[in-house]
Specification:
Chain lengths: 473, 288
């Protein structure tokens, strides 16, 4: 063999050996890097250190900074007293529902959750299907201190066990009120004392007299801001109308009443009346596309004179802005009129609970946290920080000077209203009504009449059919 | 012999190195594509979800609206993009500056632009109807309050937002057409329309058609335009499959139903995607 061949062969051999060595090093490094990445991934997904007990809390972010500060303050005190670390996450009203639903479906929820719209979209279903932990141990000692409607709103039958239990700690409540501008009412030529208490007269007053009166002054505003959309507060207002007509779609045993011709007849009257408010032109045409807070926005912008709303978020926003003239003088919180039969009716009331999830990692710690929050000093501090937006569920608030002294006219009205008879929302009795409510079958029926020009009778029949389909599934 | 062993060992290690370098990508692909898609298919595997879905009147409305937007809005948009790209191909400085302004709708985040348009179209106090009232002393059209107007508004916003991007794509394709073709056509006496018909259109047809199909695939799942502009309303009259799916999943607490809504788009999505892949592959082979 020639020397040059040998030299070439040696070079190749040396090169190949070097390459092989580099390759082995590369593979070894890759394996090491992958191993480190894998270990990091595993450590991120496994439970945190067990040196300190921890509770994960997802909480509805407040409308005002003071609310968030209040829950943080409660958590700080809880941590000092118990030594349990609380991992708090604040989410917006819409986000917390989305995230909680996804987390429950994935089997990885937080320990404690509180969303101010849980009751509309998820609470009853979760409780019925065993996705929540019963909290009887926390609620039962508090029974005598809670409003009866609050207890009804959190007591659900678990369809798997057949047992009725308390599935949440009630934190706040909402029910129907009306809000109006006193100065705009006066501009239309009327006083607060002119507002009728009879149902039909009440709506004629706002829709006809006030609306035309203010328009006669050259203002392009509307007498009533009545939500009529699938995505707004329509459901709450529809529940009020049903209560005013002394009718309901579900019995306490969960069965539907919609096969009753009397109920059907009343639903038709309700649809006619509600649609009549829209078609008379006294509410903004865009109310059929309003989102949750659009009725608030329209009233605050003074483009409507009156609007129904379930919480004190409207006056609360002015208190937050420190506009005393509006808060104390111009904006009024008032009661609904009497029902169609001329008597006061039981106002449908939402109850907003904090829950412990059944798949929570630390249920015992979660229950301790809720029990701590339920202590009067902690609960009152949290609810008061919402500037009255969150209405308490405890009986003592009816005589608490913070609410009932009369210094604050909005809170005083709420304390007065909550002393009357209240009823829970229908989804409390049958969780599938939550789905019908989420689909807003009531608003859809109204929009069938408004947009598609079907008769109220046909719209109600379609609504009943859809209700039956949803409940039967 | 030693050399051959080393060569063979080296070749073996070369073969191992390829897959080893793919491992990180494979892990990410499994974690972020295979697992979520597989879990989604599992969630959508319950026939009861589909039975329930087909009974919901809003579902058929959503299907019809989705198809309408795909067929009308996208084709209109691509036709406009084709025409406007012919304007931007001219090499003047002021046209180049204008193209920067033209790109702004695409560059601005949807949340800002679509919500602004929503407020402009407000029936009572939106900018458009305020101007209308000032001029006519009459209330203006109820833009988002009737299904037809609302759907047209959705299509308008979709076109306004994505037209700049597709115009850019077709502009780039136009710039690739050799100038000699146009010169030859001029010499043969072709007017502007004839040059467009016999030179531009055949040259751009492949890109135009592929872009149209790609836009359809992308917009089959368009959520933000409809959600921000109309919320699927009034009623559920402007729901599309994407918004209805989210509504089912997170407002009706029915995640399986929500995924089922989206899965029902697969019979359209998969053929479109396969068709697109074949066109791209054929295009690649022709380029070789």
């Amino acid at each position: 063999m020639k020397t040059s061949h040998l030299r070439a062969g040696a070079t190749i051999l040396s090169h190949l050996k070097s390459r092989a060595s580099h390759t082995r090093h590369f593979i070894a490094k890759s394996a090491m890097v992958l191993g480190l990445v894998g270990a990091a991934a595993v450590s991120l997904t496994t439970a945190p250190s067990y040196a300190q007990e921890q509770v994960t809390v997802w909480w509805n972010k407040g409308y005002y900074q003071a609310e968030d500060d209040a829950i943080r303050s409660t958590i700080e005190k809880f941590q000092k007293e118990t030594g349990i670390k609380v991992n708090l996450s604040l989410y917006s009203q819409e986000d917390i529902v989305t995230k909680s639903i996804a987390a429950v479906e994935a089997g990885d929820p937080p320990d404690v959750g509180f969303g101010s719209q849980y009751d509309l979209y998820a609470f009853a279903q979760w409780a019925s299907l065993g996705k929540l932990e019963p909290v009887d141990a926390i609620v039962t000692p508090l029974k005598d201190t809670l409003l009866p409607v609050a207890l009804e709103g959190i007591q659900v039958v678990n369809t798997k066990t057949g047992k009725r239990s308390f599935y949440g700690l009630p934190i706040s409540a909402n029910m129907g009120h009306i809000f109006y501008w006193r100065d705009m009412l006066e501009q239309a030529g009327f006083k607060s004392s002119d507002i009728p208490t009879k149902w039909g007269d009440f709506w004629n007053f706002w829709c006809d007299k006030v609306h035309n009166g203010i328009r006669a002054k050259g203002l392009r505003v509307y007498g009533v801001g009545n939500p009529t959309s699938v995505t707004g507060d329509t459901f709450a207002e529809f529940m009020v109308f049903m209560a005013a007509y002394d009718t309901t779609i579900v019995k306490p045993d969960g069965s539907l009443t919609t096969s009753d011709p009397v109920v059907r007849g009343k639903l038709i009257q309700i649809i006619k009346e509600y649609v009549g408010i829209y078609t008379s032109g006294c509410t903004p045409p865009s109310s059929i596309t309003w989102n949750d807070s659009d009725n608030n926005t329209n009233l605050n912008n003074r483009t409507t004179v009156m609007t129904p709303n379930a919480s004190l978020s409207i006056p609360g926003s002015w208190l937050d802005k420190k506009d005393d003239d509006v808060y104390y003088n111009k904006l009024v919180t008032a009661d609904l009129p009497y029902g169609v039969n001329g008597k006061p009716f039981a106002n449908p009331t939402r109850v907003q609970p904090a829950v412990v999830f059944a798949d929570a990692k630390n249920k015992a710690g979660a229950q301790k946290f809720l029990a701590y929050l339920a202590r009067p000093e902690n609960y009152d501090e949290y609810v008061r920080a919402s500037l009255g937006r969150q209405i308490p569920v405890v009986k003592r608030f009816l005589t608490d000077p913070f609410w009932a002294s009369g210094k604050d006219p909005h809170r005083a009205m709420v304390a007065k209203l909550y002393a009357n008879e209240l009823q829970p929302m229908p989804m409390t009795y049958n969780y599938k009504i939550s789905k019908a409510n989420s689909e807003n079958v009531w608003a859809k029926a109204m929009l069938r009449v408004i947009q598609d020009k079907v008769s109220p009778e046909q719209a109600v029949d379609e609504m009943i059919k859809r209700l039956n389909e949803i409940v039967a599934n | 012999m030693q050399t051959r062993e080393v060569i063979e060992e080296s070749a073996t290690e070369d073969r191992h190195m390829g897959p080893a370098m793919l491992v990180p990508y494979a892990i990410m692909f499994v974690a972020f594509v295979v697992y979520p898609v597989g879990y989604g298919v599992y969630l959508a595997s319950d026939p009861a979800s589909y039975i329930q879905l087909f009974k919901d009147p809003a579902y058929l409305t959503a299907v019809a609206n989705t198809l309408l937007i795909l067929l009308v809005a996208i084709n209109l948009k691509m036709a406009l993009a084709l025409l406007i790209s012919g304007f931007f191909v001219h090499p003047y400085a002021w046209i180049r500056w204008l193209s920067v302004v033209f790109l702004l709708p695409w560059a601005i985040p949807s949340l800002i632009s679509v919500l602004s348009i929503r407020w402009m179209l407000n029936a009572e106090w939106g900018m458009l109807n305020n101007i209308w009232f000032q001029l006519t002393k009459q209330d203006g059209p109820q833009w988002l309050l009737h299904r037809d107007y609302a759907l047209m508004s959705i299509m308008y916003v979709h076109i306004w937002k994505s037209l700049p991007f597709w115009t850019l794509i077709l502009l780039a394709a136009r710039l690739g057409i050799p100038k000699e073709f146009y010169e030859a056509a001029r010499v043969d006496g072709a007017n502007a329309f004839q040059r467009f018909r016999h030179v531009t259109l055949p040259s751009l047809w492949g890109v135009y058609f592929t872009s149209t199909v790609l836009s359809m695939v992308w917009n089959l799942g368009d959520f933000s335009t409809v959600y921000l502009l109309t919320g699927g309303g009034p009623g559920s009259s402007t729901q599309v499959l994407a918004t209805l799916g989210i509504r089912y999943a997170f407002q009706m607490n029915d995640i399986r139903g929500g995924v089922a809504v989206v899965v029902t788009a697969l019979p359209l999505l998969i053929p479109l995607t396969i068709f697109l892949m074949r066109r791209l592959k054929r295009g690649g082979l022709e380029a070789q």
